[in-house]
Amino acid sequence: MQFDERLPLYQRLRDDLATKIAERIWKPDEALPSELNLAAQYRVAPGTMRRAIETLVVEGMLERRQGRGTYVRRADFTGSLFRFFRHVEAGGEPVIPKSEILLRKEQPAGKDVAAKLAIAAGDSVIYLKRRRLIEGAALLVEEIWLPKRPFARLLKIPVEDYGDLLYPLYERECHCSIARAEEFLSVDLAQTALARQLNIKVGEPVVVVERLAFGFDGRPLEWRRSRGRAKQFHYKVEIR
Amino acid sequence: MQFDERLPLYQRLRDDLATKIAERIWKPDEALPSELNLAAQYRVAPGTMRRAIETLVVEGMLERRQGRGTYVRRADFTGSLFRFFRHVEAGGEPVIPKSEILLRKEQPAGKDVAAKLAIAAGDSVIYLKRRRLIEGAALLVEEIWLPKRPFARLLKIPVEDYGDLLYPLYERECHCSIARAEEFLSVDLAQTALARQLNIKVGEPVVVVERLAFGFDGRPLEWRRSRGRAKQFHYKVEIR
DNA sequence: CAGTGGTCTAGACCACGGT
DNA sequence: CCGTGGTCTAGACCACTGA
Q1: Which of A13, B44, B176, B233 has its CB surrounded by the most CB atoms within 10 Å?
Q2: Stretch B68-83: mean pLDDT, rounded?
């Protein structure tokens, strides 16, 4: 508990718990000690510990399950891009699109990628290009940049073994959990190569979703650019 | 406090406070009685009242000001569309675009509009069409539908007196405060008329922002469709 | 059944804002 | 200075979960 003394106690507790989660002292899908137990350990009132936990629940780092315990939450992105891109829903249940890795290589980071990933320009990054399909129809084309540091193992695994979802792969092979992300939306016009890959006409509008994904320690782990047909784009926002 | 007995007390308190706000017993920008005062009135513990208030703060209905009191919050949408559409920022401070009412008329609600506004098809609605400009350049074209019931007065005011923002107008003239809204984004191609109004080419992509705005009682008050150049579109989302 | 989080109470003291 | 919300404590009892 070597955090800034001026901060409220529940904030310092929150930071300490967050650090423990980032250090994987408690792992995703694992229960923390009970509230009373933690309060006793830290010698604070149960209500204060409760508030610290509550904060992390709101931030999405923890999850409470009544009668069972408090668990480290792993971000679930399976529905994320599909909040943006409408696709045929077979009965309403979420379908995970097939993934086709088109390219994998190691390369030095360009200036923009380096800035996004908070590394030095020229540092090694892993570049992936993949296509995602639903029932054989191209939905998205994605480009992905990962810092080599924690992801080197991905270069040694055959791309056929990657599977359809990358984040479980990162966690399984590289012990990197994605905690949250920022996404940026914009609209562009399809160039020749992209049009061919998405099976649309050159010049048709495409929606670009750029995503910067962070670990529990708040450091950027992945930069991703996905493109899909604007026709299938739809999105809902709450405004207050 | 005639709410469902099975609900937690703080929930029932929240509902009761929300009703009072909807009934304009406390008006926007007005301070509520203090927490201790309210707790005493309702004969509950201060902590419980605090939690009820906290809930409404999170929901955006109330706003706390340390040392001053708790205030009814009015939604502020001045920056809303401009989170989507980038425009020339003169020095960074938010600019309110000029508003040009192109059309105002009373008409029977079509099926879709009626569904959005939760009224019967054929009921009278007010239809507005306006253009919004920044430094003379067309930014957006908007279509707006309002139920005649609380908004009839708008038909009697010269459109020149509407001003650049509609929500203050609604509040001033019709005693209708907008509490929150849902926005839906999609991409379309500009038709002839729209292209002319936005000063772009026919077939250029445009972003469509459809907004359903609600009052404090949760009832839909306004349905709006705004269209702007996709080139200027950009948006950021947080994912967890 | 024992153990967990969920609700609720009843205070104390502090920091801030306006008079 | 007083009144406000912000923090923190120290309990009690309930509802849910899994063994």
Answers
A1: A13
A2: 78
